[in-house]
Amino acid sequence: MPRLFRSVDGVLLAVSAGSLVIGVIFARLGDGALAHALWAAGASPVLVALLVSIFRALRRREAGVDVLALLAIGFALGLGEFLTAAVISLMLASGRALEQYAKERAHREMTALLSRAPRHANRFESGEWRRVELDAVLPGDRLLIRSGELVPVDGSLIGAAQLDESMLTGESVIRQRCAGESVSSGVLNAGAGFEIVAAASAQDSMFASIVRMVRAAQRGRSPAARLADRYALVFVAVALALAAGSWFVTGNAVRALAVLVVATPCPLILAVPVAIVSGMSRCAKRGVLVKGGGALERLAQASVLFFDKTGTLTGGRVRLVAIEASAGTSPESVLRFAACLGQASVHVISEAVTIAARERHLVLSVPCQVEEQPGAGVKGEVDGHVVVIGSFAYVSSFATPASWSAAFLQRLAYEGASAVFVGVDGCMVGALQMADQIRPETPRALRLLRQEGISRLVMLTGDRRDLAETIGAMLGVTEVRAELTPSDKLAAIHAARRDGTVVMVGDGINDAPALAAADVGVAMGARGATASSEAADVVLLVDRLDRLVEGVRVARQTRRIAVQSVIAGMVLSFAAMAVAALGYLPPLPGALLQEVIDVAVIVNALRVLRIRSSATAGSLAANDAERLRTEHIELGPVIGRIRELADKLPGLPAASAVEALTGMNDLLADKLLPHEQRDDLEVYPGLARLIGGEDPMAPMSAMHSEIFRITRLLRQLTEGLPPEGPDAGSVREFQRLLYELSAIVHLHCAQEDQLFHVLGEGA
Q: CA of 371: how far to CAs of 138, 374, 393, 420, in Å?
């Protein structure tokens, strides 16, 4: 508490406490006059502080119960109740000091970010590393982050790195990040030194944006506090009426003083701010940055949630599906040019392109003269070539469209896929087809949001209706609004606000108008923090939708605790005022009782800091979760070959069909079956202990049994084929089994990925 006594409230507490104690000593020694003078002197600074506080409140056109404290102290001094005045002053000063201490404690997680802002960066210039000011860093610069240093700007990893992201995410574990992945400014290098390609300047990076938002959040004033002020008008009127009535009926001014004493200060203005700030702090610790108390309260009252589809419900694991290349250009060259330039962008698709190139062991160059147009594409120089990547419209403005582009665009429309077009030196040389997958945590997050009382879950998208409704059915959202323009999204949000408090979740700068229109705008993850966060009220620093569930849960519990504190404190205060008006509670004991009430409501409000944001019993070790995900990535080509063989089997010659089926059986025996057997025997028992209950992995093990049955049947049928190969009926049977196996393995891996994601992140 030493820092407390450097504040005005701390000084007032020290002065009022010192004068009260010394006055009591002199009163015991028989010098009543000096004791009275000391008690009056100790009350005077508090009286002045109250006058200043009331004057400032009036200038803001606000009201409060400070007027009751002013009247109580002044009335006590006027009646010669100097000891009572001193006790009231001490009571008020201690309440203010305790409130200040509680707020400082609650702000701890939020303010910790502000002290860690990096100041310099190590940039590669003229063949050597040079220390430069952070403001000098530009997109495309090659930077070195030594062990123990903070990443200065957002960028793309050139090599592997071990990162401590706890300051941003609230998770105190070391994360292994691979080459090509995006890395956010503000995270700590917990391993050996590594290099990144800067994707943004310092001002446009995530950490700087977060610092700005934290400062704005600390300056913000909760509407709950303003609401408390409005209630305070009623409270003040009741207290004054009760005090005046008791004086008028009995003619005893001391009773009126007693009423004023127990009404000072009001728990209403103590409990609400402490609870709200504590709730914001609790959210920040879990990677949910709430920019103000008002946003926290509105989030607690949310009943309608709108989601942008791309990058919010989907976009967690975008992957490369196919490469289209012009004549004379190899697919690897198209991918390499795109990945080189993609290093200088933190967009989710750029990250996926870079990772795909690293997985194919392509050597990437560092781009220069990078210019990015958010939502459209990136332009820069790679190995002396002018390269542009992005949407078809964006690339076409710099490069001549290819002959294959029209047919490729039509195929994308049919499949509902996205693409990165690539232009080199004024010519469109290729395109990368990307698949936008549903985030692993999305289905679980939507289920939990319904449990938290969200009645409507609405997906907004500009995609075709058939594609949007397919995804909506998979996720179980309440409504699907497809083929929307930005103005259509705004209209939908405005209309829904008539039905309740609306939350809009988005991830890009194109979502900014919708985020601003909603009652609560929520920006997703690292991209949201640097793109649409200025329009958002809440930023999820972790790129996970289920963190929104934690934010809603904390907000609702915060509001509930604040209301509990207010009701309990007000009831006790009114009861004490009634007892005082009847003459059973003198001013001095009343002051002590009110102090107990104030402390009780503040301590109750601080319970917000102990809110449990998650009910998960345990979590996988980070390296185990990463290993399991890697194994599934390695299984991807196997699953793809199952479907590929099923598609082409009818057109294969008999001998080739037998050879292909034999090879498939060998592949399944070497890759798929050992993986599933190892999961059943080694992985599932550990997961069962984490989840709890009796045999919680039984449904997953049953899918293993079905996989084993189909693979065994495939091998038996293959071994029983005649020398001339399969007939038409056998081909159909093989196709049925292959399609069935492909679907089951795909679904099973998706379920395991979701389970690993939940348990592996400590959600």
A: 10, 10, 16, 16
From CA 165, how far away is CA 150, in angstroms rounded? 10
CATH class of 319-435: alpha beta
Q: Which of 141, 154, 229, 308 is catalytic?
A: 308
> The domain 288-314+438-541 is classified under which CATH number: 3.40.50.1000, 3.20.20.140, 1.10.4080.10, 3.30.10.20?
3.40.50.1000
Report the distance separating Cα 298 and Cα 555, nearest Å.
8
Return phi, psi of residue 434, to 5°: -115, 145
Per-residue pLDDT, 429: 94
Percent helix, strand, coil in the chain, to 5, is: 60, 15, 25
Can you give 208-241 as a three-state secondary structure string?
Answer: HHHHHHHHHHHHCCCHHHHHHHHHHHHHHHHHHH
Burial class (CB within 10 angstroms; exposed 0-12, middle 13-18, buried 19+) of 368: middle
What is residue 446's predicted lDDT score, i.e. its pLDDT? 87
For the domain covering 117-215, report its CATH number: 2.70.150.10
In the prediction, which pLDDT does 269 show?
A: 62
Structure tokens of 531?
Answer: 């793109």
d(CA 126, CA 140): 15
**Residue located via tokens 């979760």:** 625
Task: Tell me how far apart the alpha carbons of residues 763 and 753 are, in angstroms, rounded to a whole number.
Answer: 14
Dihedral angle, C-alpha 79, 85, 87, 92, nearest 10 °: 140
pLDDT of res. 466: 73
Predicted confidence at residue 761, as pLDDT, reads: 56
DSSP 136: G
What is the rounded distance in angstroms from the CA atom of residue 533 to the CA atom of residue 205? 12
Q: Determine the pLDDT at residue 386.
A: 94
Q: Is 308 assigned a catalytic role?
A: yes
Give per-10-residue mean pLDDT for the chain (763 aa).
Answer: 56 87 89 90 87 77 68 85 85 72 57 64 88 88 88 87 70 69 82 88 75 58 51 76 89 87 67 79 81 84 86 69 87 93 81 84 88 84 93 92 89 77 94 80 84 88 75 82 80 88 78 79 64 70 82 90 81 87 88 80 80 57 68 77 86 87 91 87 81 78 88 90 85 90 86 74 50
pLDDT of residue 64: 57
Tell me 131's DSSP state. E
- Asked if residues 85 and 39 have their Cβ atoms less than 8 Å apart, the reply is yes
Task: Using alpha carbons only, give the angle 352, 757, 752 rounded to the nearest 5 degrees.
Answer: 100
pLDDT for 625 equals 67
Strand partners, 389: 378, 422
Cis status of the peptide bond prior to 265, with omega within 30 of 0:
yes
Neighbouring-strand partners of residue 322: 433
Of 277, 285, 214, nearest to 614 by C-alpha is 285
The whole-angstrom separation of Cα 83 and Cα 16 is: 11
How does strand 155-157 pair with strand 161-164?
Answer: unpaired
Q: What CA–CA distance (Å, rounded) separates 702 from 240?
A: 72
For residue 162, list its beta bridge partners: 176
User: How, if at all, do strands 385-390 and 288-290 pair?
Assistant: unpaired
DSSP E strands in 375-475: the ranges are: 377-382, 385-390, 418-424, 427-435, 456-460
